[in-house]
């Protein structure tokens, strides 16, 4: 199995098994988000159509929830800033 195909399948399996985001997969495998996205949305379809459908569903779900994750991250950021402010006051 060539290196590209192996990477594509490993990224796709990781996303499908963990419900991971493109960002999570990129961080886990040490590649860019662009590489992950290209691998799982373009290349994967020609290598493994069944896995492609699984990954597509996960990415669709992640996309529909991203506004929620963003809100949670912002809330956590301000919670930490308030804690720091309390400690330094």
N- to C-terminal separation?
60 Å
Order of helices and strands, N to C? HHHH
Report the major sheet: none
Rg calc? 17 Å
Number of domains: 1
- The low-confidence parts are none
Counting DSSP E segments of at least 2 residues, the number of strands comes to: 0
Strand content: under 5%
Structural class: mainly alpha
Mean pLDDT: 90
Number of helices, where a helix is a run of at least 4 consecutive DSSP H or I residues: 4
What is the topology?
Layout: H1 3-18, H2 22-29, H3 33-47, H4 49-88
Helix pairs in contact: 1-3, 1-4, 2-3, 3-4
Account of the protein in words:
Helix 1 (3-18) crosses helix 3 (33-47), helix 1 (3-18) crosses helix 4 (49-88) and helix 2 packs across helix 3. The radius of gyration is 17 Å and the shape is elongated. 89% of the residues lie in helices and 0% in strands. The protein has helices spanning 3-18, 22-29, 33-47, 49-88. It has one domain (3-88). By secondary structure, the chain is mostly helical. It contains 4 helices and no strands.
Q: Which structural traits does this protein have?
A:
89 residues, mainly alpha, 4 helices
Give a short synopsis of this structure.
This protein is mainly alpha-helical and 89 residues long.
């Amino acid at each position: 199995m060539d290196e590209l195909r192996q990477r594509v399948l490993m990224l796709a399996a990781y996303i499908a098994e963990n419900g991971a985001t493109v960002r999570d997969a990129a961080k886990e495998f040490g590649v860019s988000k662009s590489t992950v996205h290209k691998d799982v949305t373009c290349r994967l379809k020609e290598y493994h159509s069944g896995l492609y459908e699984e990954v597509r569903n996960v990415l669709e779900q992640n996309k529909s929830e991203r506004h929620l994750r963003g809100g949670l991250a912002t809330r956590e950021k301000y919670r930490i800033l308030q804690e720091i402010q309390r400690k330094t006051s």
